[in-house]
Specification:
- This protein has helices at residues 2-12, 30-41, 59-69; strands at residues 18-23, 46-49, 77-80.
- The protein is built from three helices and three strands.
- The protein is flat, with a radius of gyration of 14 Å.
- With 97 residues, the protein is an alpha/beta fold.
Length: 97
């Protein structure tokens, strides 16, 4: 866990913008709130792609990410994460920036 935190801290300190993204059309799900709250606690701006839009199958994730990436500079760093079984924890500082 310490290695993951160190890697994310290093990545987020680079000059490029750092984006945390997920595809989720049902933000009222209990499991999603864990991801959302952990990002908030760590001052990570979680970008929710596909909110309120139909989710047909896992290819939907690729479609939503492709749409998102069209407007993102090539140098930016993207952390794509699952919406329902992931949450982030921080060290003593409590954030990545």
């Amino acid at each position: 866990m310490k290695r993951l935190f160190a890697i994310l801290f290093f990545i987020s300190s680079l000059a490029a913008d750092f984006h945390v993204c997920t595809v989720c059309n049902k933000t009222e799900e209990e499991y999603f709130s864990r991801l959302k709250n952990s990002c908030s606690a760590l001052n990570l701006d979680l970008k929710i792609l596909g909110q309120g839009m139909p989710y047909v199958f896992n290819l939907t994730k690729l479609t939503r990410m492709e749409e998102f990436l069209e407007n993102i500079p090539d140098d930016d760093i993207i952390l794509f994460t699952d919406a329902f079984d992931v949450f982030y924890v921080g060290g003593r500082k409590g954030n990545f920036r």
